[in-house]
Design a protein that fits this description.
Elements (H helix, E strand, L loop, with lengths): L4 H19 L6 H13 L3 E4 L6 H11 E2 L2 E5 L6 H5 E7 L5 E7 L6 E5 L6 H4 L3 H6 L1 E4 L2 E4 L5 E6 L12 H4 L4 E4 L5 H11 L11 E2 H12 L5 H12 L10 H6 E3 L3 H17 L7 H12 L4 E2 L1 H5 L4 H11 L5
Parallel strand pairs: 1-9, 1-10, 2-11, 3-6, 6-9
Antiparallel strand pairs: 4-5, 7-8, 12-13
Helix pairs in contact: 1-2, 2-12, 10-12, 12-13, 13-15
Pfam family, one: AAA_3
Protein name: ATPase associated with various cellular activities AAA_3
Family: Belongs to the MoxR family.
Length: 329
């Protein structure tokens, strides 16, 4: 379906209205809000990482209030079991007194699922999210259940505490569309936070869109055309994350063990399309891909032992790639 400039303006205004409602509760953090919204419109999953008290959970809960979708929150703990997430089969009695097995659905059967402190659960429990995140289905015994669209998993984790936590495996990290780092607020923002949260008035976000409208925005984003030379630029960026690629800069060859999977390419292009629409354009530019590269790739680049020992982070790796890969029309 072909969309017009008028449709693009409607897209931008709707996104701006969602951001404004979130801004009633969340102080500052414009990049965080924008990247979370892009994930939502892309139909992807986001991993928010930041120290305690930075309103990660509040942001996701506020987003669920601005979008008229079913919301559920799962608090991940070491004793959480997969059945606590996807549900379990119970013995139930019908009206005639006959006993039967019945599937009791878990909190994963929602539109927006908050996986709070996801790295506190064991790998066995974390893996219960894999099928839902990628295929939007849940399999129990021999039966598969389709999750209602739209469906998103927005997870949080604390990078400070390592004791009693289980780092997410690469296979699950790759299923997150974005990994979003939550920065500490500025002194001016801290003042605003205190003024908003220590008084008697509490802001209440209003519903902006429903699930059906959100699906329309997702379809509109996917219809944005991408020129061949822009696709080629994205492909060169992804290839340059691999140390054995001739496009890889010296920093990648020295400090990276594994680069991005093709999912990184898919996420980069889709994020670029949404960024273009949010900027009022119906075509993807090089700058859209550069802007989206860090949240798309920071969790898809696996550092080598030498890179970890020298304190190299994935953001600096992405920056070196963007500096080395030239834009070619």
């Amino acid at each position: 379906m072909q969309y017009t400039e008028r449709d693009a303006e409607m897209f931008r205004r709707t996104a701006a209205a969602i951001e404004a409602e979130i801004g009633k509760v969340i102080v500052g953090q414009r990049a965080l809000i924008r990247q979370t919204l892009i994930t939502l419109i892309a139909g992807g999953n986001a991993l928010l990482e930041g120290v305690p008290g930075l309103a990660k959970t509040t942001l996701i809960r506020t987003l669920s209030e601005a979008v008229d979708c079913q919301f559920s929150r799962i608090q991940f703990t070491p004793d959480l079991m997969p059945a606590d997430i996807i549900g379990t089969t119970i013995i139930a009695e019908d009206e005639q007194g006959q006993k039967e097995f019945r599937f009791q659905r878990g909190p994963i059967f929602s539109n927006l699922v908050l996986a709070d402190e996801i790295n506190r659960a064991t790998p066995k429990t974390q893996s219960a999210l894999l099928e839902a995140m990628q295929e939007h289905t849940v399999s129990v015994a021999r039966t598969s259940y389709k999750l209602e669209e739209p469906f998103f998993v927005l997870a949080t984790q604390n990078p400070l505490e390592m004791e009693g936590t289980y780092p997410l495996p690469e296979a699950q990290l790759d299923r997150f569309f974005f990994k979003i780092n939550v920065p500490f607020p500025s002194p001016q923002e801290l003042v605003e936070i205190a003024q908003r949260t220590t008084g008697t008035d509490q802001a209440k976000p209003q519903k902006v869109i429903n699930g059906a409208t959100l699906i329309q925005l997702q379809q509109m984003a996917r219809s944005v055309p991408v020129a061949t030379h822009v696709l080629s630029y994205a492909a060169r960026i992804i290839s340059a994350t691999h140390p054995d690629s001739p496009l890889a800069p010296e920093q990648v060859k020295r400090y990276v063990s594994y680069g991005s999977s093709p999912r990184g390419m898919q996420a980069l292009i889709l994020a670029g399309k949404i960024a273009a629409l949010l900027d009022g354009r119906t075509n993807v530019a090089f700058r859209d891909l550069r802007e989206m590269a860090t949240p798309t790739l920071r969790h898809r680049i696996i550092l080598s032992f030498e890179g970890q020992a020298e304190g190299v982070n994935s953001e600096s790796i992405v920056n070196s790639i963007l500096e080395s890969i030239k834009e070619e029309a």
